[in-house]
Fold this protein.
Amino acid sequence: MSAEEVNQRARTVEAYRLWWQHDAHWYQGVASRFGQQAANELNAEALRKVAVHVGQRVGRRSGPLPGSGDNGKDLEELRRRYDECGDRMFPRELRNASTEVEDKCEGGDGGAGLIVLTLRRNFAVTMVRMAGSLEGYRCPCTDIHAGWSEGLGVTLTENRAESCLRDGDKACRLLMRVATPLAPVPSPATEG
């Protein structure tokens, strides 16, 4: 990588940081004027809308979900798509995250597969903490995952945080239980 490419990447990361700093201060302003609940609700609503759009774009790029009947293989492909959604929405330099399939529901019995997202660093939590708004802040992670899932055309039967960096845990552990077998969903015709 050339020095110019390194400099461009550094400028891009700095732009992301500034936008996240803006977001944290926006959140703090809404919380001080309209209350913490309103700030949490508006933040989650806005992020979910962005997440749906990201999921749709990833879905269009990747094509329909396989629906092959092999739940393990299909869930692994969905896991890969969730990772791509995360990479598109949050640069790797600002977070440390990974997903894994923990329950493949073998046998095609119409059960539910479990995909776990582990987040070891979350720049949003850092920025909200720096802005002085961590107290009362509600992480919008489940709203983001609901948006990705909607955009990707999958149904979640469970969507919850088992642990959270915001609460002082070492990592966020987010559980997304997906209805299986995955049904192939046609990609939306427009980017919206």
